[in-house]
Specification:
alpha+beta; 5-stranded antiparallel β-sheet; 1 helix; 47% helix
Length: 129
């Protein structure tokens, strides 16, 4: 029996096993990077929608009128936008935050606004749709 041939087969077999393990780990790393990227994109859209809610609350402190705005870029130059609407009849603020064109998050906030100036805004509930 040729010992050199057995050693060569054993070395090739070991190399194949290590290569398969490496490919598996690379696949896991690539998947994890994609998950992190998706999470980051969604979080940016959520934070942009929250900025729209804050903008609406500031507007409501100055006037109780219904309004629709947007798209407003926030922060400037980042490509993230929000659209905000407020309906005094329902007392709801709806803010849609977008991360470029990839992801959109919608927030609905029920508020009550005092009848006299300076208007005070009280949040009743805050939820993601």
């Amino acid at each position: 029996m040729n010992k050199k041939g057995v050693a060569l087969l054993l070395a090739l077999f070991t190399l194949i096993i290590i290569s398969l393990l490496l490919l598996s780990f690379l696949e896991l790393a690539t998947t994890d990077l994609q998950i992190v990227s998706n999470h980051l994109t969604r979080d940016e859209a959520l934070y942009t929608a929250e900025a729209g809610v804050e903008d609406a609350i500031v507007r409501l402190r100055n006037t109780k009128l219904d309004f629709t705005s947007g798209p407003i870029e926030f922060p400037s130059g980042a490509g993230n936008t929000y659209n905000v609407t407020y309906s005094s009849s329902s007392g709801k603020i709806t803010s849609v935050g977008r991360r470029g064109s990839a992801e959109a998050v919608t927030l609905e906030v029920k508020v009550s606004v005092t009848d006299s100036r300076p208007y005070k805004v009280k949040i009743i509930y805050y939820r993601e749709l």
